[in-house]
Amino acid sequence: MLIAVGSLAFMGLALGGLLGTAAHYLAVEEDPIEAELQAMLPGSQCGQCGYVGCAQAAAALARGEAVVTLCPPGGKAVAEALAARLGIKVDLSAVADTGPQLAQVSEEICIGCCRCIKVCPTDAIVGAAKQIHNVIREACTGCAACIDRCPTEAMTLVPVPVSLQHWIWPKPATANA
Amino acid sequence: MNHPIGSPVAAPHTTTDNSVGRVMATVMVALTPATLFGFWLYGWPAINLWLITVGSALFGEAFCLRLLDRRARPVLFDGSAALTGWLLALSLPPWAPWWIGVFGGLFATVLGKQVFGGLGQNLFNPAMVARVALLISFPLQMTAWVAPLPLLSAAAPGFIDGLRITLKAASPAFDAVASASLLGFAKTELSRGADLLQALSHAPAHTWYGSRPGSLGETAGWLIAGGGLLLMFRRIISWHIPLSMLAGIAVPAAILHGIDPTRYLDAGSHLLSGGAMLGAFFIATDYVTSPNTPRGQLVFGAGCGVLTYVIRTWAGYPEGVAFAVLLMNSLTPIIDSYVKPRIYGRDRRGVAIEPGK
Amino acid sequence: MGFFDRIFREPRWGVHPDDHKRPAADVPLRILPPPARLYLPLHQHVGGVARPVVLVGQKVLKGQLLAAAQGNISAPIHAPVSGIVTAIGEITAPHPSGLGFAAITIDSDFENRWIDSDPVADPFSLPPEEIARRTAAAGVVGLGGATFPAAVKFALGKRLAVGTLIVNGGECEPYLSSDDRIMRDFADQVVDGARIVMHAIGAREALVGIEDNKPEAIAAMKKAAASYPEVKIRPVPARYPMGSDKQLIQTLTGKEVPADARAAEVGVLVHNVSTCAAVHKAIRLGQPLVERIVTINGGAVAQPGNLIAPLGTLVEEVLAFCGLAQAPARLILGGPMMGTPLLHGKIPLVKGASGILAFDAAEAFVPESGPCIRCGSCTQACPMGLLPLEMAAHIRADDLEGAVDFSLGDCISCGCCAYVCPSHIPLVQYFSHARGELAARERASLRTEAAKRLAEARIARLEREALEKAAAAARRKAERAAAKAAATAPVEGESA
Amino acid sequence: MKEFVLMLIGAALVNNVILARFLGLCSFMGVTTRIDTAAGMGLATTFVITVSSMADWAVQRYLLDAYGLGFLRTVTFILVIASAVQFTEMTIRKVSPTLFQMLGIYLPLITTNCAVLGVALLLVEGHMGFLAATLFAFASSLGYSLVMVIFAGLRERLVLAQVPRLFAGPPIAFIVASLLAMAFMGFSGISTS
Q1: Which end of chain D is more exposed for a tag (fewer CB within 10 A), N or C?
Q2: pTM score > 0.80 for this model?
Q3: pLDDT value at position C494?
């Protein structure tokens, strides 16, 4: 009995000591994955993912609480980058990628209240009080933050029109499908 | 001229008249001489078994397509299922009972092919999957060989007797013709500790042109090789797999036979026995389950050959082609991912070459 | 070919499609009379869209500048006829999408009056830069189909010390014979153009690669080049895609262009025979590129052959000139292997249009595609040594990165793989789709980057504004306090 | 010499840990989605099996047998294995963080990988000498790694196949595993006749 207890205790101590030493020599700095993930996100803090901002979304991703497809403005490109960094597989066909979208002002309804200008995360809306506002196409990310703010529903999201340079051959239909 | 001409069709706007159906048909033509020889050699039971196996394979394919709501017609007519059944039938004992053919044909197309998604998606050769499954499940029926009784000879079973053999397994009247294949005979003798050189003198009769106990369509090595040459000539298959597989069998056989002829069969017997020829020209060369670069094919074929020899010589089964092909099938994805063709402007590892080379 | 040869000889890259070049190639060249109205797209070349320099209603002469080059890589557009600019608007582009692009419309006055030209008697006395400038001003682009501005290539050749000019007379696409025709009928122009290009890039020799299925062209070119030893005519075996730059360079010089590099880096530069002829006209005659030779071919064409056609002519008018035996089942701009499908005939002829094919129903038949049986035909045919079957399988499973790992980027879209596929899988379409999708993702991530910068700028602005506000508030407070202090204590009750 | 070769083949191929003894199936299904991950897992497990088998052999001979403590076998073996796994985990984390990420939960789970304990127990039952035991453990783990890599290769191709919905995912993976096991039956009975 004593031998059994003693030998187990000895083994435990010896192996524990070995591992402790090994842990000392093989210590790894925690990699700043959160910062890396945040750098991949658009950073417009639009809140469409359900988190307060991109930093919080990145933290949730790092903890494994959020899915990589959480970012609608980022679309497939961001989802793929996140998945690659996190080393997980992702079904991109599930990403609701409606294609790039733009906010558009209906000029006949806009009353020039400037509310949308204040919420736009990328300063993509120009205008002044009592002036019809306008969207700078190059700067708009289609994040939809302005849509709900507009008191007259003058703001709408429209898909970016397909141009000759942006046209994509459709994927061939498979016979077996 | 103002109306649109359909939706855009991508280039190229022209194509060869080659098709999957044509490829399969050519393979069938190449198989025909050896098959007819097998029919002649083993008579009506062999013909029955062939029909049953091919029919079951077709039925299995059609049944799955029906379940999957896919159109059955174009798929059945591309001939791949019939060819699978055909190849399986050629590798079966000619007087095997009907349920061997049914089970094998269904197993090949259903579990060997359709569960993977059909033509082109399977990882293992369907015919060999079925052959191995049968061999493991029914070792007795799968090693019951008969001596050749040419179709029109007096001793051969007639049409009715043939049906009886196929439907009720071997009838007592024909027990006398039960025989052993050369490989099986050698294995049994060796396990008894006999000297192979002496044992072979009272082996079952086997002739060079293929009149010997064996599988339905595997005995006539020269007819199979002829069919294989036709396929090479038609550029359906390349020489890499057949040659390397035959070499993979012959080289170790020749070396070991040279060292100790009392324990190891000679290379010629190995090449002409069992499924070596059929395997090298028709089974290992299956597009779907073999590598698609010439160098990968050399590795694949050599692997098939050596494994065949190893299994024949040292493992429990007298014949190893089916196992060897399945084992190498499982290695195909790995061969393919490491043996790739050299891309223009890059070296073999895919790094861009230096200008001026 | 012997029995053993057939079995053991490694099949080499490429395919041998039925070439269908004759009888169209043997029909003498015809001249298409300029139509009443022409449409000159602003974007007929690789690079920046040209900028219009004429106004609607303005009278123009033949050869007059309509739109100027814009940016480093671009080309100007000139008037192919004399007449009046009637509109600057949109017309359907020669593009599978059927989308439109900007074009200048000219109504011909049928006088065909040339603008004053500036011919050069002795181009070899000019500095190379001047030849490049004149070529650029004439709007000459690669006429083999690539439409890369020729002068930009000259500059590249000069910078990288190119010793060899390769003149591409391969014309490996079936049905097409426009290059064949230009070599037969204008061999002197081609050879002279090649010599001018050599001078412009400082090359020591010119190798003219011509597929051996064009014996008449080879004979004509040999005769034209007889007195110039530096111009060597080199017949090459007829095999598709021999006319692809990389394959022709390898066949003629044995050199392989490294991946992701330009041909100039191995000391060669490739120009098409038609481009050389255009350079000849631009320099010797001072004429800009306003017309080209087009092959009209296909089962639906009554009189197939080659035409000298003004740029901007509508495809339907070109076809009407040759006559249609039946309604075409498919219209293609370019060759059958790499050409662009056209949705209708109201599409203008552009600089890169080497041919217009009107296919009858039998030629246009597309067999239904089946599953891949991994036969490896595509791998054998691929002139780049790629694995098309693997790339397509990954793209089908939406794994575009996987396809890139199989070097999708090295694919030249020649169509050999799809041509030989016994399952008739539209492999090229898979690759085009993947490329478009990858480019879209690239754009999306650039956009994300830009959005991030804007968001950061906004945050900085908000902080700055907050700081300024605080500073202003503090200042006001201080001012008030100072005012208060000045007014001294007695009125303390009022400040509340 | 001949016995050693036969034992190597026997342990690696004929009585393959995964396909014949059906041990270590969780990692076999879990980390075989990519070839490099499977190879990494195979390497890690090879290390753990070899090292822990050597240690377990010593524990069995000099502790359990010597003092009649046979009832402590499972406890002590697991102790040794857990330590070896911990050590491996630390090493991989240091050397290849990417592999560490990809192996994820399956790395610490090598501890409970039945293949490891299974091989150790087989050694004890076989009453092998130290050299034979080490060789057996190494060959078994090589067989394990080989099958892991083969299966990963097959699954990489399976991902691209249009498997009917009914069979997609684990069902087809199990079917492939069974076909692979069938193919490996070809090695059964390998002996020098």
Answers
A1: N
A2: yes
A3: 46
Residue of B10, B117, B118 with shortest CB distance to A169: B10
Q: Does the distance separating the beta carbons of D160 and C396 come in below 8 Å?
A: yes
For chain B, the domains span 21-333
Dist. CA D86–CA B232, nearest whole Å = 56
Per CATH, the architecture of B21-333 is what? Orthogonal Bundle (1.10)
Contacts of B131 in chain D (CB under 8 A): none
* Cα B71 off chain centre by: 28
> B48-52, C42-46, D1-5: which has the minimum mean pLDDT?
D1-5
Please provide the CATH number assigned to the domain covering A98-161. 3.30.70.20
Q: Which of A133-142, B256-265, C254-263 has the lowest mean pLDDT?
A: A133-142
- CA B245 – CA B279 distance, rounded (Å): 9
> How many domains would you assign to chain D?
1
**Is D45 a member of any domain?**
yes
Question: Which pair of tokens denotes residue C60?
Answer: 């123009």
B63-69: which pairs have CB atoms within 8 A and are 24 or more residues apart? B63/B110, B64/B109, B64/B110, B64/B114, B64/B118, B65/B114, B65/B118, B68/B114, B68/D164
Residues A55, A58, A62, A63, Cα dihedral to 10°: 70
Nearest to A176 among B8, B10, B118 (CB): B118
Q: What is the mean pLDDT of residues C145-168?
A: 88
Name the 3-class secondary structure at C69: coil
Interface residue of D160, D162, D163 to substitute, partner C, most C CBs within 10 Å: D160
Among all residues of chain D, which has the CA nearest to that of C392?
A: D160
CB atoms under 10 Å from CB of B35, counted, come to: 22
| Per-residue b or e along B272-290, where b marks 16 or more CB atoms closer than 10 Å to that residue's CB | bbbbbbbbbbbbbbbbbbb
Whole-number pLDDT of residue A59:
83
Give yes or no for a contact between C414 and C338, defined as CB atoms under 8 angstroms apart.
yes
Residue D192 lies in a domain: no
Query: Does residue D1 lie within any of the structural domains?
Result: no
Integer Cα distance of D163 and B140 in angstroms: 34
List Cβ neighbours of C451 (8 Å cut-off, separation of 6 or more): A42, A43, A44, A73, A121, A122, A139, A141
Q: What are phi and psi of C293, to 5 degrees?
A: -90, 130
pLDDT digits (tens, 9 = 90+) for C379-431: 999 999 999 999 999 999 888 989 999 999 999 999 999 999 999 999 999 99
On the question of a common fold for A33-94 and A98-161, the answer reads: no
Q: Count of residues for chain C?
A: 496
Half-sphere exposure of B170 (CA within 13 A, CB side): 20
pLDDT at C489: 59
Fold of A33-94: 3-methyladenine DNA Glycosylase II; Chain A, domain 3 (1.10.15)
Least CB–CB distance from D90: residue in A12, A26, A87 = A26
Q: Which amino acid is at C111?
A: E
Rounded to an integer, what distance in angstroms lies between the CA atom of residue C394 and that of residue B232? 30
Q: For residues B286 and B237, what is the distance between their CA atoms, to the nearest angstrom?
A: 9
All chains having 3 or more CB pairs closer than 8 angstroms to chain C: A, B, D
Q: What rounded mean pLDDT belongs to chain B?
A: 87
Q: Does the distance separating the beta carbons of A87 and D72 come in below 8 Å?
A: no
The complex scores an ipTM of 0.86
Say if D141 falls within a structural domain.
yes
Closest by CA to B102, choosing from B50, B168, B43, B164, is B50
Number of B/D CB contacts below 8 angstroms equals: 95
Answer for the pair C180, C25: CB distance below 8 angstroms, yes or no: yes
Q: What's the pLDDT score for residue A42?
A: 79
Task: Please compute the mean of the pLDDT values over residues B168-191 and round it to a whole number.
Answer: 71
Pairing of strands C330-333, C340-342: antiparallel
Asked if D186 reaches chain B (Cβ–Cβ under 8 Å), the answer is yes
